[in-house]
Each structure stands twice: as C-alpha cells, then as structure tokens.
Amino acid sequence: MTTQELKKLEDNLWASANRLRATGGIKSADYAVPVLGIIFLRFADNKYSLYEEQILKEFSESQNTRNPENIEKIALRICGFYLGEKSRYEYLLNLSDSNSIAKAIKEAMEDIESWQDEKFQDILPKDNYYNIEKEDKTILPELLKTFSDIPKDASGDVFGKIYEYFLGKFALSEGQKGGEFFTPTSVVRFIVEVIEPYSGKIFDPAFILNFSKSTINPSYNKLSA
C-alpha cells in the first residue's frame, strides 16, 4: 500500500467513524477505546487468516499421531493467538439486527483472551460497547462495516499507522495536545502488539511502561505482527 493510498484509507475510515459518533451524540473520550478495539479485531482476523491454512494443516496431521494437539494450541504456537468462529470479523459483521452486537464483541474479546496467559487477561475492551449500543443500536454494525474496508492483506505496519492516526484524531477532537492526552493502558497494549516499537523515541509514559514489558519479556508480545 502506497503512502497516498494509506492516507486516503485513514481519512475515509475516520470520516465514517466520526460521522457515526456525531450522529449518536457520543463524546470522543467514550468512543476512542471501543473504536480501537474494533480495529484490533480486524487486525487479529487479518493476521489469523495468514496462518489459518497452516494451522488447519498441522491440526489435521496431528490427529493421526499418538499425541494429537488441539487446534487452539497449534494456533497459539503458529500465530500467537487463537480465533474461534465467534471471534472472526466476518461472523461479527454478518450478525443480524436482532443480535446484541455489544454482547457479541464482548464475547469475542473474552474468547481471544481466554487462550492467552495471565499477562493478557482483562486487557481488551468489552463493556465499553454497551454504552454505545444503548445510545444508538446502528453504530456498532456500521463501525464493523467501516473497518471491513481495511484490506485483508494489510500488514501490521498499516494497522500501526491507522492506530496512530486515530489516536491523534481523538486527541484533537478533545481539544488536547499530545502530552495532555491520556492513552488508556489497553489502547497502549494494542499499539505495542501491532507496531512492535523496538527502536526510536517514545513520548507517552504509559507507552514506555508497556514497551518495556514487551521488550524485556518476548512472551508478552504474543499478538505482534
């Protein structure tokens, strides 16, 4: 993806997401983490898709051995995380209007965490989505549609740029400057997993804390691209 194509994608994603926020009368501060969580789900699905064929192949071969592995264990070894059917982006995207999308997203986040070690428990956003659904039931389905525009072959670098772009936009929409914008821990963890910041300068203290953890303990960085 060229720089120009990425910029156009970022602008289009933000315009759509921000229009939904304004229509629902939701503050940026209450919108940022849920939106970044949905971007995370898109990233996770993209990455899992890259390894899915290999995961299924090894699972099939394993069933003919004395010590067969379950598919979750194989996925963790190959991809770093496991996505069950109800955690897949297409599943969430295609849910009917009669379903609670907030509940489905929460369950998807819980399922992803359930296969991780203690360091990844209670990290992903979950209950935040209920407030949005309470304000306007159409927002979450539309957000899922919006971020489905991120190409299936988008790399971790592309997602890192999109995260960075959205964080900046949320900060500006709150009338805050970089140093004044509080980055929630869960959001920081998302960024660490996606862009793997192993060099350069980091200006957010919360980001530094999580960067240090992921650098010192490689197992902490299981969801990296």
UniProtKB/TrEMBL annotation:
The keyword Acetylation does not apply. One of its GO terms (molecular function) is site-specific DNA-methyltransferase (adenine-specific) activity. Keywords: Methyltransferase, Restriction system, S-adenosyl-L-methionine, Transferase. InterPro entries: D12N6_MeTrfase_N (IPR022749), DNA_methylase_A-5 (IPR003356), SAM-dependent_MTases_sf (IPR029063), T1MK-like_N_sf (IPR038333), Type-I_RE_MTase_Subunit (IPR052916). Residues 155-206 form the DNA methylase adenine-specific domain. GO terms for biological process: DNA restriction-modification system; methylation. Transmembrane segments: none annotated. It catalyses: a 2'-deoxyadenosine in DNA + S-adenosyl-L-methionine = an N(6)-methyl-2'-deoxyadenosine in DNA + S-adenosyl-L-homocysteine + H(+). Residues 9-147 form the N6 adenine-specific DNA methyltransferase N-terminal domain. Pfam families: HsdM_N, N6_Mtase. Signal peptide: none annotated. It is an enzyme of class 2 (transferase). Belongs to the N(4)/N(6)-methyltransferase family. This is site-specific DNA-methyltransferase (adenine-specific). The lineage of its organism: Bacteria, Pseudomonadati, Campylobacterota, Epsilonproteobacteria, Campylobacterales.
